[in-house]
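Notes to self after the call with IL:
- keep both proteins in one doc
- input above output, always
- annotate only the second one for now

Protein 1:
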Amino acid sequence: MSSQPAFFRLDGSTSSLLVSNHGQLPAITWFGARLEADLDSDILAHHDDSAHSFATLDARADMSLFPQPSTGFMGSACLIGHRPNAGRAISFTLGSAAQSGQVLSIVLEDKQNALELTQQMTLDADSDVATIATSLKNTGTDDFSIDWLASATLPLPNHLTQCISQHGRWGLENQSYQRAIGPGRIDISNQRGRTGHEHAPNIICAANDLSVDAGDALYVHLGWSGNYSLRVERMHDGVGYVQAGVLLNPGEEVLAPGETLACPEVHFTQGAGLNQCTQRFHHFARKNILPAWTRKPRPIHANSWEAMYFDLNDKDLNALVDAAAKIGAERFILDDGWFINRRDDTAGLGDWTVDKTVFPNGLTPLVEHVRSHKMQFGLWFEPEMINPDSNLYREHPEWVLHFTNTTTPLARGQLVLDVARKDASDYLFDCISVLVDEHEIDYIKWDMNRDLVLAGDGTNYKASKQPPAVYALMKRLNDAHPKLEIESCSSGGARCDFGVLKQTGRVWTSDNIDPLARATIQQGFTRFFPPEIMGAHVGHLHAHLTGRSTNLHTRAIVAMQGQFGFELDARVLNDEDITTLHHYTELYKTHRSWLNDSIYWQLPTNDALLVASGMVSSSQEQALFSAILLDSLMATRPGHQRLRGLDPKSRYRVTLVSNNIEQIEPFNKVLPDWCINSIVTTGELLSAIGLSLPVMPPQSAVLIHCCMEAN
């Protein structure tokens, strides 16, 4: 091994990643701001303190890329497993390490246990997001059972003392929770079989001085749509780490001789402040993860669900299509209830055939009516699910995830199909493809409305087989229908990660479209995911999930933060509402050409009840900023709102474009000038001083446009 380099260096546009190669196993020495100086192994050796730790063992307790007890590491071992009737300790040594461009490939060997582990680390030079891909091969002659295999273990610098994670429930996803990293391991374990409302596969470790603008932060994301564990620990000797991997049930992953298990990828970056790390992830996703069609201007959606639920018929749907077209919709989606025996949510899932009692002539008349308005047509499916009251279940009860002699509890009246079965997957592909071909369907809303419980094949657990099988089915459909677009919907936002986003390019962020709830849901969502993939719709006056009433301007402004659309009954809108919605649809159409590649900024506010953010064009020529007041402020005036992302040397015309001045004016003795007539000021002053916000009533919002003035 003496011929191998003592360290490897990957450089991004603003960051550097150093991996030392002088210990027993390679280890990350530095990941952060780009290092400008030339380095050599002697210099780096001066900054390695692993040999000086006060440990209970004489062994050198390396915080390597693959820490293990055999090196004296007392944290969460990266691999726990065994062979039949054998319990030999895992002990990897370095086989090889080689760098090619921005890719570092490391091979570890455990000859005693006949295992080979490969880790490939890349640093995307444009976005400064690094990725680790890990795989384990069984080179032995008998099976190897895996209990835990980490996708990645990252060192946790001493000054990162805070952990920010994202949690929630149905209808309130992506709520941030911050805690100190103290004694004891933080273990966020998701066992719901999908990414989950309760926990998101994201971890932020940060310094005490973290803000939107400053303070060191380490962002970590696991690209996986199933069970997982995220672990953060600072041990008694000060050594800290972040670890992520698939959470396995007993006996779920057994490697046969010669077989390889590929782990889901871990993506991470370390930067200064929330905004810098967020922007890096957005850029990385756009370049490396999302389908190409997400780079095109996004059409305005109109979805049938909250307008009609299961009460579908041609006449009323045609009227809804007419009304949606009138307010600017460009794509109409027929939601749940179109297939046989689907009059409520207790029957029909799995029988993907049009119900002729509802649509006597099939879907063709509706599709033609949609097309007559020059709108695209989309259709709702829930392919992974099956109702016991369905023809498919009666014909193939063995296709359901289950354990023999154990009753699987229903959720929403449904069970889960074993998509990893080839016959089940082929059935779904054929059913969906027939409809896509027949009606030239542009878009599928792919739903998933329950967690995986007792996910087995009758005898063995196989929850870990479900996500890659779903990815494969989606990819098969995408390959067969290149113009098709798929949305990831899972009771709202319960499946959003870089695993599923390689096949989908839109996420139904939450079933809750109450704009006040959405303000924090969407802010949490955009921590890791670009805003243009976020389904954001204008709902009814009375939100169906919360019962709260909010004015139309607030609902539209919040929807403008993502892919704009409607989740309402447009047939009952009055002329004033239609005029208002026209205003926002035209705004969205005017700006969407640059929104897809915009730079997202969370804005610092003086009060947590004021939620503010902005999207700035990559050229810095245009920007849209929103400020949403959730409730009454303690202060009588909201004060100045500082903006971000504008060119400090340029002058900008600032205009209130939310068209709701009449609602705000009564609460102000004197309105700020920019609210009445557009003003011109500099990007520097908008960042340093900000705009004086008007006094706003609770549950109101403003939308601000900044446009660079010609020299």
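Protein 2 (the one to annotate):
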Amino acid sequence: MIQSKGPYPHVFPNIEDWGIHRLHANRFNFVKEINEEVYSRYANKSNDEISKIIAKTIYSERIRIKQEPWKVDPPNEKAFWSKITKQLILDQETEEAKANNLEIIKKIIHRYSDEIVASFKPSTFEFARKFLRVFFGRLLKSASGKNFGRIWGSKFELYDKLKVFGEAEKIRELSKIGTVVFVPTHFSNLDSILIGYIMDQIVGIPFPSFGAGLNLYNTGYTAYFINRLGAYRIDRRKKNPIYLETLKVMSKQSIQRGTSSLFFPGGTRSRSGALEVKAKLGMMGTAIEAQRDNFQKGREDKIFIVPIILGYHFVLEGKFLIEQYLKSTGKEQYFKSSKDQSYSFRKTMKFIWSSFSESSDINLTIGKPMDVIGNFVDEKGISYDDQGRETNLKEYFYSDGVVVKNNQREREYTRRLGDKIIDRYFKDNLVLSSHLMAFVAFNLLLSQNSNLDIYGILRLPPEDFIIPMDDMKNAVSQLREILFEMEKNDEIKLSKEIRWEVENLIEEGIQKLGTYHDKQPLKINKKGLIISEDFNVLFFYHNRLTNYGFDKKINWKSFKLEEVNS
């Protein structure tokens, strides 16, 4: 797959021309309009419906405050909800009761919208941009020499380590004529900032608005910067209907105002390490609603959906994520648990150092852009249906020749869009050498222990197993031939290392996979034998290539593992 030619000049050099700046320049009016639209969605309900919604919200919030308190929570939480409880009128269908409860709805909506909407400060963004440029640049030079002191070593360009593949030039053109919504895979808490930085500094398009977990605001420095970079706050503890409605309206209005946005269809980081196989539709539906609303208002500008596939040789939170996955799926069969330490400065610095060392890189693939229905678009924004025929997007929202709201129809469009995004994740997934090594190694382990379930295999002592080099070469060669055929059929993408001589490919993949972790998922020991120090982490990286059916295309049992005699 060919790497993009960036870094590109910025499409909109002045930050004042960015949608994210215009959106937050008048935060007061933005919050006000969110409040009004959310309120309008409740105003025509009966008082019985309204009172039940409020009661459900109060109940869920009391549980949250008691069971999951956070440092970032407002100090008046208990007092606010206690007051709301006393004001709520139940079991009355009078106009006075409804008016009272609608006032309560207003208060709750404003509390949520004011929490969700952060701000965007150009001065803070400029500082962050310059800091990261200098920091990453010097780090790259130091890492290339394996010495922090050599900050003025040989010249390295940042984009040589932050590699961009795919449709960069097309989304540059689309950003000039419409609003771009990025829908990436999700593996790390660093994903949003990393994607935003790459879009700004390498692709040359405006930094997107993105959702940041409210828990990130527990840390002073993190809160200061994220709060001023246009990130909207998401509290995943809050699942009541008023909060979710407020969040969706905020997203819809942000997109309508031309703000480039980013949200994760998977909803959260992939605990297993696998590509997402199912999209959560809530936030994606806001893009469809925004497009239809634009058409109703006589606007012809389009919203473009752009899948992003991130490719890490190693993931900052990999060890924690796989343990969370195994704990949730294995229940009593899996006991081990660790804390997510990805927020620590030491962990983050080690990850960045490893990522930008001479032996590693971070890969980002920009998938084929689509309209909100899932039709592919060209660089002029023209939509084409599944048969390659030019199609008029506006007509998808017609009823009797007029654009109208149809909730059932738009839910179906959202499901279709979600399926299209997942399909592109798999077809635009760039297979790295580390992905290939982890997948082959763990399948060899599985084939030799077919009498055990996955939890039994993960309890085996890693030091007791050796992967013979000849079997590794044979399995890698067989899988690679399958990958070559898939690439021809536009079913997957391959990094250039996949075409190297098998011996070099194996050495490269193992080296990059083991750069970051203390206990390496794969390594070549002093005797030249392939071993693993951590089956759990090896399983995590193996999962990147699951759901392609490779387990059925190769006779894994024909290979042998050597067991060390105790």
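Annotation: The first strand starts at residue 162 and ends at 166. Residues 403 and 465 are 64 Å apart (CA to CA).
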